[in-house]
Amino acid sequence: MIHALLTRVGGTDWETIRLPLVLGLLALVPPVVFREGATYVSRLIILAAIFATLAMALNIVFGHTDQLFLFVGALTGIGAYTTALSAEAFGVSPWATLLVGAVLTGVIGALVCYVAARLQFTVILIAILTLALQFAVIEFFVGARDITGGSTGLIFSGLGFESLQEGFGIHEHVILYYLVLALLGATFAFYEWLRNSTYGLAFDAIRQDEVAAESIGVDVVRYKVLAGFTSAFIIGLVGPLYAQLEGFVIPGLFEFQVIDVLVLIILIVGGMRTLLGPLVGAGLVIWIDEGLASTGEWRTVIFGALLIVLFLYFRQGVVPFADRILNDRFRTRERIATWRES
């Protein structure tokens, strides 16, 4: 791990300060980058933060309990639609219904994990089940026109702070960025706590060997359901923020190729079961994808080729690869220094 390089930084444990340090640096992005007329750049940065949060949610359920959710897009859509529709139905702000969408997606995630755990589904079967649910939910979004607005969707802008925007002249992207950053920071902090807790130990025991974990008293079904609820709940919170960025809620935003493929790629490229992997992966993949926009019809081909290179060169992810390289160099320098002293 990289933190082994910096076990002490000015007398402070690196593990303790790394997340606040990264979040502090990210908090400085708007004053430096978000300038008048630079809405394209600010949108990309917010999008990267959104996908980093989604990737971290998948990291919990897939990276630590081997339950491959291939309906992240559907869960994101359920969170967004539930928040928007319930706010409209009750005549309240979407802030009041934000948790309703998150809890609903959490329950759905928990239910899927419960069924899969009870029936002892393998990771492949869970992937097939959730992929089928992904397509079914998107079809529902399109078909239930009277409820969801069909393919034309709904206009959504209820998570903004108009008074701040008008009173202080703050761009809406700045406010949205800090909202997304707050959720990202809370998710990453929760993940750091989770993997160092007894829950994290139970998750890893399940991932390595379910039978052995059960033999030592780990309730496999309970912990899998907990992982499913936690991940889906986070995804449900991200959904309305994603819709706020786009300005509307339509089925096309939540399709498999739009969200699930990208989230899975981000997690693998960044590095599974790492704290900073989803963030690094999101920044890298979003940057590459948008950088190829000018290539036209060759965009998908070139993007795929670059991903193959990344997967072959960074087999365990960019963050674990960087950890290994830096640790090797650090140990080499340490040995040289010890040899010279002797």
From TrEMBL:
Pfam family, one: BPD_transp_2
Topology versus the membrane: Multi-pass membrane protein
One MF term in the entry's GO annotations: branched-chain amino acid transmembrane transporter activity
A single GO cellular-component term on record: plasma membrane
Keyword Transmembrane helix: yes
Lineage: superkingdom: Archaea
Cellular compartment(s): Cell membrane
Principal location class: membrane
Protein name: Inner-membrane translocator
Native source species: Natrialba aegyptia DSM 13077
